[in-house]
């Protein structure tokens, strides 16, 4: 489960930046095409924050949809799964959004 190492990196990055400052909330953006399972991150977050300055912090996750552009017909369309097909049935698409994985905000006391 790579979500454990991803979540550990998030916790480590926040602790490295803020030290012992008490963190009350964290907001992440995890795109639907990122390959990261938000529910797994939520579980890992609670476990990995124990004993750190993030212990008890609230985790909020935004899950933006994917967006792509067809290289054949030029249409832009949304994607919510890994089947990269344009409505025109072409698989010649460029992914524009949905692979995000970032910390968007941290709340402190």
Description of the molecule:
The protein is α+β, with helices and mostly antiparallel strands and 109 residues long. It is built from two helices and six strands. The protein has helices spanning 2-18, 38-49, and strands spanning 23-30, 58-62, 66-70, 76-79, 93-97, 101-108. The strands form two sheets. A three-stranded mixed sheet has the order 2-1-6, covered by helices on one side. Strands 4-3-5 form a three-stranded antiparallel sheet, with no helix packed on it. Strand 1 (23-30), helix 2 (38-49) and strand 2 form a beta-alpha-beta unit. Helix 1 crosses helix 2. It is elongated, with a radius of gyration of 17 Å. The two termini are 32 Å apart. The mean pLDDT is 95.
Relevant terms:
3-stranded antiparallel β-sheet; alpha+beta; 3-stranded mixed β-sheet; elongated
- The strand line-up of the biggest sheet is 2-1-6
Mean pLDDT: 95
Topology as a string of helices (H) and strands (E): HEHEEEEE
Share of helical residues = 25-40%
Separation of the first and last Cα atoms: 32 Å
Largest sheet composition: 3 strands, mixed
Unreliably modeled segments: none
Structure summary, number of beta strands: 6
Question: What is the CA-based Rg, rounded?
Answer: 17 Å
How many DSSP H or I helices? 2
Shape: elongated
Beta-strand fraction estimate: 25-35%
Secondary structural class: alpha+beta
């Amino acid at each position: 489960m790579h979500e454990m190492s991803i979540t550990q990196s998030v916790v480590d990055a926040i602790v490295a930046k803020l030290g012992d400052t008490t963190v009350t909330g964290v907001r992440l953006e995890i795109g639907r095409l990122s390959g990261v399972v938000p529910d797994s991150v939520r579980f890992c977050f609670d476990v990995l924050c124990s004993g750190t300055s993030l212990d008890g912090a609230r985790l909020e996750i935004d899950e933006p949809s994917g967006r792509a552009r067809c290289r054949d017909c030029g249409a832009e369309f949304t994607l919510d799964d890994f089947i990269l097909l344009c409505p025109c049935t072409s698989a010649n698409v460029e992914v524009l959004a949905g692979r995000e994985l970032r910390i968007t905000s941290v709340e402190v006391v």
